[in-house]
Amino acid sequence: MPESASLRVPETSAEKALALLRQLALLNTELRLQSENGYIHIPLLREPFASELEKLRNDLPDVRISKCEFLERQEKIIRLVDLLSGKLPPHVLAGLPHAVDFVGDIAVVEIPPELEPHKLAIGVAILRAHKRVRTVLSKWSPVSGVYRLRTYELIGGEARTRTVHKEHGCIYHVDLAKAYFSSRLSYEHLRVASLVRESETVVDMFAGIGPFSILTAKMHANVRVYGVDMNPDAYELLRKNVLANRVMGKVTPILGDARQVVNERLTGVADRVIMNLPEKAVEYVDVACKALKPEGGVMHYYQFVDTPEPLDTARNRFAEAVRNSDRRLLRIFETRIVRGIAPFKYQVVVDAEIK
């Protein structure tokens, strides 16, 4: 059996650990997890760097790095480059997309312009490499519009955009053509839901189909979450997902623009506000401040940043927006890059306490 660097965590923390390791690109998917006396040993590609280890220990207090022998997975992961080798020119193989997003049984890939003539071959290869995938979609446009939608082109499998996606023990009905959803935010959904405390009231200002709202309700016995979205299709999917996950009474879906909804129904109710609208969240900081209880609360603010110092830029923009409201920024307790969007463009989150 091959020996590998290993992360040991309690079984109850295994799902959270796997999500974090995927985000850090540390998970060795060619080896099988091992279980021992209430703990899970997870194989790593390499020893974590100091900064990565600090992140792991902050999010997973009872964690240990060691060496461990693992069994190899019976089914090796098939790479696109292996499937297409000999079928495409070498210079084309070098440009194959490395990132494939999986939403339920749909694979979503971005085809660069130089690979457009080979997109159908790539679609077939993805279907062969991932046996659970039934549909392969190519991103045809960037996310745009008030509903944050993009168009897709079918390059393999069944012609559809609807699926059922499972994440952290939750079930989500998704329609990629009608409501925004990103499986790349899986760890972020878990991170924020884990920070919520019992008895809190949470306003999810741009809830979409509900990944923040529903996971929060599933993880806590006594919370109230208001999931707001102005997209009627997202709202209907949110309602469906509330039923599917049995969080009725804990998650209240609301259809409407967050500004109007907060002004009319949710002023001063929230202990915590989630603002996952990175394109325009800065325009709604005053609304989030209004949603917080008079004594204050916590904000999770997301923003796209394309400057050389993305963390400082996000902090400064957020702090200025709070200053322009009737609230006071008490402290920022975390700022982190959530993911890269494009070369030198990032999605950043700022977690802050507001008084």
The number of E-state strands comes to 17
Query: How are strands sequenced across the largest beta sheet?
Result: 13-12-11-14-15-17-16
The end-to-end span amounts to: 55 Å
Mean pLDDT: 91
CATH superfamily of the largest domain: Vaccinia Virus protein VP39
CATH class of the largest domain: Alpha Beta
Overall shape: globular
- Tally of domains: 3
CATH architectural grouping of the largest domain: 3-Layer(aba) Sandwich
Radius of gyration computed on alpha carbons: 21 Å
List keywords for this structure.
single chain; 355 residues; alpha/beta; Alpha-Beta Plaits; GMP Synthetase, Chain A, domain 3; Rossmann fold; seven-stranded mixed β-sheet; four-stranded antiparallel β-sheet; 11 helices; 17 strands; 30% strand
Structure description:
The protein has 11 helices and 17 strands. It has about 350 residues and is of the alpha/beta class. It has 3 domains: about 5-70, 2-Layer Sandwich (Alpha-Beta Plaits); about 80-160, GMP Synthetase, Chain A, domain 3 (2-Layer Sandwich), CATH 3.30.300; about 185-355, Rossmann fold (3-Layer(aba) Sandwich). Strands 13-12-11-14-15-17-16 form a 7-stranded mixed beta sheet, sandwiched between helices. Strands 2-3-1-4 form a 4-stranded antiparallel beta sheet, with helices on one face. Strands 5-6-7-8 form a 4-stranded mixed beta sheet, with helices on one face. Strand 16 and strand 17 form a beta hairpin. The mean pLDDT is about 90.
Topology:
Layout: E1 3-10, H1 14-23, E2 34-36, E3 39-43, H2 50-59, E4 64-69, H3 80-84, H4 90-93, E5 100-103, E6 106-109, H5 119-129, E7 135-139, E8 152-157, E9 162-167, E10 170-175, H6 186-195, E11 201-204, H7 211-219, E12 224-229, H8 232-244, E13 251-255, H9 258-266, E14 272-275, H10 285-291, E15 297-305, H11 310-323, E16 329-342, E17 345-354
Parallel strand pairs: 6-7, 11-12, 11-14, 12-13, 14-15
Antiparallel strand pairs: 1-3, 1-4, 2-3, 5-6, 7-8, 9-10, 15-17, 16-17
